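Hi R.,

Here are the chain sequences for the assembly we discussed:
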Amino acid sequence: MKRRLVLIGNGMAAARTVEEILERGGGDLFEITMFGDEPYGNYNRIMLSQVLSGEEDESGIFLNDLSWYEENGISLRAPVRITRIDRFAKLVYGDDGSSTPYDILVVATGSRSFVPPMQGIYREDGNLTPGVLGFRSIDDTREIVRLAGQHRRAVVIGGGLLGLEAARGLQSHGVQVEVLHAAGHLMNQQLDAPGGAILKSSIEALGITVRLNARAVALRGEHHVEAVQLDDGTEIEADLVVLAAGIRPNVDVAVTSGFTVERAIVVDDRMGTADDPDVFAVGECAQHRGEVYGLVAPIWEQARVLADHLTGARPDARYHGSRTTTKLKVAGVDVASMGITAPERDDDEFVVFSEPRRGVYKSVIIRDDRLIGATLIGDVKKAAFLIQAFDRGLALPEERVGLLFDLGATSAEPSVADLPDEVQVCNCNGVSKCTLVKTVQEGEKTVSGVMDKTKAGKGCGSCKSLVRQIVEWAAGDEVQADPAEHYYVPGIPLAKPELMSRIREQRLYSVSAVFAALAPGGNEDAKSKMGLTSLLRTMWPQDFVDERDGRFINDRVHANIQRDGTFSVVPQMKGGVTSVDQLRTIADVAEKYQVPMIKLTGGQRIDLLGIPKEDLPKVWADLDMPSGYAYGKSFRTVKTCVGSDFCRFGLGDSTALGVAIETRFQGIESPGKVKMAVSGCPRNCAESLVKDIGIVAVEGGRWEIYVGGAAGAHIRKGDLLTTVDTPEEVLTISGRFLQYYRENAKWLERTYAFVPRLGLDHIRAEMEKDAAGLDERMQQTVEGYRDPWKEGREPAVPGQFRTSLPLISLPQVPVRDGSTALGGRAGRSTTADPRLPIPEGR
Amino acid sequence: MTAVSTGIVLGAVDEIPPGEGRAYQVGGRTIAVFRLRSGALRAFPGVCPHAGGPLADAQTDENVLICPLHLNTWDLATGCSRSGQPDLEVVRVHEAEGQIMIQI
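And here is the predicted structure of the full complex:
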């Protein structure tokens, strides 16, 4: 039988909670009743300022109209105000004389405008004096609009976010507006004093008068307000007064019904009240760990936790409080703020930039190399980066001014708004800016959702940050964070550390066991299989239970699939060093199987391309060489220079070390591929500075170890991790780093992203802390190595090497032996002799 | 008019490891058959309509298949593309006494 779920409240928190409950199948669990004070469906209260200013009409701000309640079988009782909760009889009493039983009760009564104590604000009948209004509901807004048409002078009491928005809205109706603010600067909750001062000049430039340190103590006017009086005796004429001096939680019903109420209704981490296990509170009327939240993001989070808990979708869901960050437009001025507004300790770093003429102000506060507060006014380009740094405690750039400005990028770099619509953003999958914008407009408001739908950023990934910027720009304030962005794989709602600890606790050895135990509904997810396979192999080098469907095709057949469905075969050639025997064997095999193309790879190996799947076992048998791992998310190759044996500049034996490294780490899977190099001197002919792990021999018999370099879709110079004395130490330290990367990087996160994300100092410290453990786990992995090409002799599963291709002659890719120099799929092939004068382009 | 459909046995179900797919040649066509982990069978034409990828090499779960070449996805129940490509024709497939039987 369905349980009776009753919500007191029909605002954003209540509606969101119900939406989250329905999303988790709660429609089958509960008979839902919602009590609303206002005779409407639920609407987006944040948008009231836009309604006031006329930018949006009323119908545009409804989140759910009345049909939503009907469709979802929700009974909406409005306008009914609940006056008392009898938690012993489990009944709520309404002001319409009704009594309604519940099994579960959620209090989501929100808050109301604070009415400051002022003489003459109330009439004798207890109502506000005519002409005095709050700014909280759709009715308030309608009334302000109506009065604005009839009156000339308005005073807004309160210079916070809401007050400034109200002032701007009133002004758009042609009313003369003055803002009275009791504190010394505007938006003092979010901004420091200099920031507030700059905001003040921007607001005044709009024609709105701002009066600071202004304490309104009385209203004059008998039948209708005529003026506001300040504590210094000043009198300001006004025929319309809007109260925006803060909000107060609606807790009357909770207080009279005997619940614990401090600033608001006290709740625990499950959003449960302190007094009754069946009564919960959510939103602006709830107080969690001493905090009462008035912003939408924390309230969404509370709604999710409550829904998880009530539906049993995640009984262990907990709300841990939120770090609040805001990015918004206040009366047309961009403002972003987070954390504290002014330095608190002597050693806090405080970096400020101020350009009053342009109305730009930026400040950041740093403690122990972590961002703990920031304010941006007028120019919020860096807001996304700062919010991330703040939320996740990212390492900060040494050059602190880089927190306030994009360094290096010249002003020639266009902002996303200026990019032409047709510009191709993702060059791999051919996605243009207008496609991204259209996808956002069609309702997809998360970055990852847009990427999934359009495939933008799903190729090499180098455009991801641009895609993110465009989506954020196109979605504006509606952009939604996708919690899945922090998951290790999309199908399991856990970040990597939590996922690993669950796998360890529950001893999950196979991909299917992980899905069964940890995925919502125990459902498999194809997109998560490869990442889980890699993680489980890393965690259980001995006990991993191999399920072949958990692997990508490349890892099933140990070769790299090509565009025509054939495969490439790259035999192991440690350090790029080969021999007459190897070359002869490779030549014989290539001839025997009529290999259409033989090519040198970027990692100094020989690649045989165009091998049909069914020939792989025979090719491997004839080669009789181990796999060169040119296909997996794994350790790939070590590129080397000739080093001290032959090179007259060589300082260290780079080839011998390269061979040793490749022997030790061959075939080890990792979150992303790992390319290495060893150079015999700082001339760096093996390009060690742009490898995931790069080694450089330096004078004095020492070796430098660089990590996090890249020279593919992304270019990054590696960071010097350390300098060591012996080749053995190179093996130990690079193995330790590799293991740390394997255990801590996100799936498909290359070292060039991983190293700067965690910060080199942090990585060094963590490697130091767990040196013995990392070394031991790496050693176990090394000992577990087995050449996968041996599977050619005895396939692991039936039909492992059976063709998947239609019965047509292969290869479709043309045979190329080096005699035709130009061509390819991107451009037109040319058969002209490249030594001839080049014809004019047509 | 009566629609004519012919049942064709492709081979033993055991030839396909759980969760994987295999390709079969049927009268000049290539059919990719998937054996889901739940035991259900699904079948489609073996060639991806986007760029000719070998669909039998796809990864699957109970709902979608992912082409190995460009990671396009299709719904296993309806054959509808989930990534803006042409849809796949659904080939009717059953298990009959341990054998894979399709109807064309």
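Chain B has a mean pLDDT of 90. The domain at 19-93 of chain B is CATH 2.102.10.10 (Rieske Iron-sulfur Protein).

Let me know if anything looks off.

Best,
T.
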